[in-house]
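Issue: ligand-bound run for pyridoxal-5'-phosphate - logging full I/O for the record.

Environment: standard queue, default settings, no custom constraints.

Inputs:
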Amino acid sequence: MTKSQLVSREDQEAFSAITERLHQIEYQIGEACAKCGRDRNDITVMAVTKTVAPKYINFVVEQGITLLGENRAQELTEKYDDYLLKQENIHFIGHLQTNKVRQIIDKVCLIQSVDSLRLAQEINRQAEKRDRMMDVLLEVNIGQEARKSGISAGEVLPLAESVLQLSNLRLRGLMAIPTVEHPERDFANMEELFHELQAKFSDSASMDILSLGMSGDYPLAIEHGSTLVRLGSAIFGPRKCVL
Ligand SMILES: *Cc1c(COP(=O)(O)O)cnc(C)c1O
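Outputs:
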């Protein structure tokens, strides 16, 4: 922010609170890495941008955040033009209907929420039309909760097999949201599942992303092998308003 006189007092306070939170997060990640002997550079911090105004999103990018995560196709479409980061630094992380793939495919470089063969096929079809590759993760409903989307643990290897047949998709790994009650158990199960996937497809794919951990549990996720933590409120503060 060079033109500081044009920034409202409220925004200045918001920016300094965000800066403080980013420092906190770095500290926590450093502690978690030290605890389990991991390298900080093996973990990517994603800023989850739902309900957050572009000026704050662009601010964290200026502070060094290199990856954004969007939940809703419509919100992404509305805010995209105002972002400093573009397609190659944005993932889609929310539930995706097949008829919305077209809207977002040119605005993201990876879709984390593939939860059916039908969706994978549609992403593949749209990618093929554009003559490009699309990276995807499979979303796992690891706690088998009725309210959450994602495939069951047992469906991971069969769906991975099918996705690997699709010419314009590149399967990069897994994503999950754990249960509130048993995050550690769920993270441990995801870690095991990810290792199985890596072992099974080690020849044919670069399976290198385990997307686990949100604001309330990312240090624990790091201890269980997460390579990508998805942080919303830990960066931007509590979500006050819905866009
Ligand atoms: C909202 C959201 C997050 C971030 O949630 P916080 O608890 O605010 O960090 C991460 N992943 C997904 C899929 C989300 O929808």
